[in-house]
Write a structure and sequence with these properties.
Layout lengths: L1 H14 L15 H26 L1 E9 L6 E10 L6 E7 L4 E3 L4 E6 L5 H19 L3 H7 L22 E11 L3 E7 L2 E4 L2 E4 L13 E9 L12 E3 L6 E15 L4 E15 L11 E8 L2 E9 L2 H40 L7 E2 L5 E2 L11
Parallel strand pairs: 12-14, 12-15
Antiparallel strand pairs: 1-15, 2-6, 2-10, 3-4, 3-7, 5-6, 7-14, 8-9, 10-11, 10-13, 12-13, 16-17
């Protein structure tokens, strides 16, 4: 009884076979079929390699939401060199929400040489070239995000020439923590002093002829410091043509959460608009000479996540490639063979000549082919 059930089950499974086997004696091979098979296998191999490279690649996914974090502090990372001596300049942040001077204790003033060495100048040219390419091809930003913490350092390399050169500039570098509201970071003449109605700078003791706000921005970023990320103002250099000159940077900061397979950081992207003008009160151009960076925070937060193709999707695409090419080449081979047979049949019909009929006396004709006669000698 069990054997009978097994035979029935086996026969039922055989009937469900979607891949019936054809005996080898019924299979006919041809040169055209072999050629098409080679082309199909080669195409399958190439597309499989290309699909595997796509499977290994990753892409960045951008998601937008309202930024609900208003209580935390915003970190500003600064590295700016001004072509004036350190005792003549002062840097501070004016918080527009509280109308008070933010503490600038996190900044360091270091005497430096404004002109770059050959190696540093080459670094600056390369950085400016990357900045120009980023403005034209925004997709390069994804490459920078994925290469963060892996690429070479974006900091200015140390000076390799004579370090005994007389310093003629001041390097202001460090970081500040400010409230997440609009503010104004500025560098102007004189040290900042607190004031009940705002703030003031001790500029009376500085000679007007020593004003020179030519500057170089080696680094400016907001949020967590992420090595390898290139910001819009990195490598910027401005040369003042007048003593009384104002440089303004209007910055819009966008909070950004970066999640890649290498890092996870809370940083900030920003866009900037530049403007510069000469202060001339007689001509109606009022203001204060210096470098002013007015920043404002966006209400939206961007989450940038590095994603990868799942294996099941890669497997489905691979099966589609193999099955599609196999079926398509089989159909094309069958259609081509059918067309060739039609053309060959027409040539054969054109070369066929019918035998003339032999008339009889009663008017009938003999349509039969004459028998072959055996000529014997």
């Amino acid at each position: 009884m069990r054997r009978l059930n097994r035979k029935r089950t086996l026969s039922l499974v055989k009937e469900l076979d979607a891949f019936p086997k054809v005996p080898d004696s019924y299979v006919e091979t041809s040169a055209s079929g072999g050629t098409v098979s080679l082309i199909a296998f080669t195409t399958m191999a190439l597309l499989t390699i290309m699909e595997f490279s796509v499977y290994q690649d990753t892409w960045m996914k951008y998601e937008y939401e309202v930024d609900k974090d208003f209580s935390s502090k915003l970190r500003i990372n600064i590295d700016i060199t001004v072509a004036m001596k350190c005792q003549y300049v002062g840097a501070d942040v004016l918080d527009l929400a509280e109308t008070m001077v933010a503490s600038a204790d996190g900044l360091s003033y270091e005497p430096a040489v404004f002109d770059l060495s050959p190696q540093q100048r080459e670094w600056q040219r390369m950085l400016q070239l990357i900045q120009s390419r980023l403005q034209e091809e925004h997709s390069l930003q994804d490459v920078i995000f994925k290469s963060a913490f892996k690429s070479a350092s974006t900091a200015l390399p140390p000076r390799e020439d004579d370090p005994s050169l007389t310093p003629d500039a001041c390097r202001i570098h460090g970081h500040l923590y400010v409230n997440k509201v609009a503010g104004n970071f500025h560098i102007t003449v004189g040290k900042a002093i607190p004031h009940p109605r705002g703030h003031a700078h001790l500029a009376a003791l500085v000679n007007h002829d020593s004003y020179n706000f030519s500057h170089r921005i080696d680094h400016l970023s907001f949020g967590e410091l992420v090595p390898g990320i290139i910001n819009p103002l990195d490598g910027t250099e401005k040369i003042a043509v007048d003593h009384n000159q104002m440089f303004q940077y209007f910055i819009t900061v966008v909070p950004t959460k970066l999640h890649t397979y290498k890092i996870s950081a809370d940083t900030h992207q920003f866009s900037v608009t530049e403007r510069e003008r000469i202060i001339n009160h007689a001509a109606g151009s009022h203001g204060v000479s210096g470098i002013f960076m007015k920043y404002d925070l966006s209400s939206l937060m961007v989450t940038v996540t590095e994603e990868h193709m799942p294996f099941w999707q890669f497997f489905v695409r691979l099966c589609g490639i193999i099955g599609g090419i196999f079926s398509t080449t089989g159909m094309l081979h069958g259609i081509g063979k059918f067309i060739v047979e039609i053309i060959c049949c027409r040539f054969r019909l054109g070369s066929y000549r019918p035998v003339h009929s032999v008339p009889f006396e009663d008017g009938h004709t003999d349509n039969h082919l004459p028998l072959l006669e055996n000529n014997t000698h």
